[in-house]
Amino acid sequence: SDSTRGFVGFYDLIWFSNTGYLDTTKVHRQSNGIMWEFKELPDGKFICSCSCTQYEGHAVDKVFRVHPDGALDTTFHTGINAGNVYAYFPLPDGRVYVGGNFRRAAAPNYTLYLVRLLPDGSLDPAFSNPHLTIPSYLPSSSSRVVRSIRPWSDGAIIACGQFDSADGQERWGICMLDTSGQVLPAFGNCEIGPFTSQ
I need a labelling partner for 174 at 20 to 30 A (CA). Which of 18, 30, 42, 150 fits? Predict the structure, then answer.
């Protein structure tokens, strides 16, 4: 509630000052859904995921990008129209790794778990999106998903989540991939075993 400037109601993107108060120098932003995750990019912009179809009155994908002031970046289009995104790892050159379990309206429109996006939001064709399989001890309703992406040396990344293999290689929830998306030998035969609970 920022009634002095007319911002009263539900907002998806707001700013707080470094003292914890609502930052009244910013423009608070609205959408027709919930913003779930966002991450600052090296250029000061933010990549966001939401359950919305519109942001500030503009049609958006489930993953979109905003300028540092929160205004929609209309030059970025991912085509992601379903599913969930849980992890981002941005690169200095404007590309960004995205992890979760999601689909695109355009090809490939099967479920994706880990992709690298180009600066315009399109899929990076130089990265082979790994295929994950679900652990056999989980119920069939469980979802394969990447929940965390971390950097490693020489541009490699470590992906963690709920899966028992990556591209046919047994990995049990953690795998390392090179810059082209190929699964590396690290973490082979490192099974943690089934849990009886979460």
Answer: 42
